[in-house]
Amino acid sequence: MIEPEMAFFNNDMNMDLIEAFLKRIVKDVYSNCISELEVLERNTDTFEKIIEQKFPRLTYDEAVQILKGEKPLNGKTTIQILEEDLSEIQAKLKENTELIEKNEQELTLPGIKKGKRNFLQSRVDQLKNELKDLEESARNIPQWIESAKNFKYGNDLGGSDETVLTRMFEVPIMVYNWPHEIKAFYMKRDENNDNLAKGVDVLAPEGYGEIVGGGERETNLEWLVSKIDEHQLPMEAFDWYLDLRKYGSVPHAGFGLGLERMVAWMCKLKHIRETIPFPRMYGRITP
């Protein structure tokens, strides 16, 4: 994690810094690592949009309305977009299956030259790999649609919910002002609505979900003590934290950026396991 904490910051300033921070990372990678991105076959069109466009900011309430298909964007709802995606995937599945059959039949012809055989076999292997991804999407999308339709207000966003929501945007989005029950107790409540915590999650596009979580912090000592008691947490574990407010504090906010998540999204890798610098595996648990 990369975890800045800023004095004299509110959550709006926090979101401004997060956006500037992410744009700087994307800009530097796009400027200095284009050859590496080409090796990874990463489509960088989205990076240009991220550098140029302002990140949409949605309240939790707005995000839920969009997720459930109750609020359209650019004339379409999430449900309509996903149904269109499913139709395209099913058509592509049929096309790939037919191409595989055609190429495999051609491979059985007598007298086929070695160069052409290798080309056709490579093409078949590539189409079969694509087929696996298409089949997975064809299985997932109906589940995502069902989950989005039945999402209950007050719940946290799950992985599929984040995927559906970010499908509507080409750049990262910021979801802020969450129900306080699903956020850390030390997040400051919204002055206009005590039911909301001034937290923010940044969701990456292309189905990668949350890459940043943060918010404005509570500075009132008595309030924090009451919340620790309410959650039945051991007070001694928070002595150091409470001491930071014991003799007064200042407005402050911060965030944590998941480094491996950021790398996975920027390189468009299938799993975060590919981005962990020190993977835990059989025979290795340290460092």
Question: Which secondary structure elements does this structure contain, and how are they paired or packed?
Answer:
Blueprint (H helix, E strand, L loop, with lengths): L4 E3 L3 H22 L1 H6 L5 H8 L4 E3 H8 L10 H30 L6 H36 L9 H8 L6 E7 L9 E2 L2 E12 L4 E8 L4 H10 L8 H8 L5 E6 L1 H9 L20
Parallel strand pairs: 2-3
Antiparallel strand pairs: 1-7, 3-5, 4-5, 5-6, 6-7
Helix pairs in contact: 1-3, 5-6, 6-7
List keywords for this structure.
single chain, 287 residues, alpha+beta, BirA Bifunctional Protein, domain 2, 2 domains, seven-stranded mixed beta sheet, 10 helices, 7 strands, 51% helix, elongated
Question: Would you kindly provide a written description of the structure presented here, covering whatever features stand out?
Answer:
- With 287 residues, the protein is α+β, with helices and mostly antiparallel strands.
- The chain has 2 domains: 1-68 and 154-287, 2-Layer Sandwich (BirA Bifunctional Protein, domain 2); 74-150.
- Helices cover 51% and strands 14% of the residues.
- The chain has 10 helices and 7 strands.
- The chain has helices spanning 11-32, 34-39, 45-52, 60-67, 78-107, 114-149, 159-166, 221-230, 239-246, 259-267; strands at 5-7, 57-59, 173-179, 189-190, 193-204, 209-216, 252-257.
- Strands 1, 2, 3, 4, 5, 6 and 7 form a 7-stranded mixed sheet that branches.
- The radius of gyration is 24 Å and the shape is elongated.
- The model has no long low-confidence stretch (mean pLDDT 93).
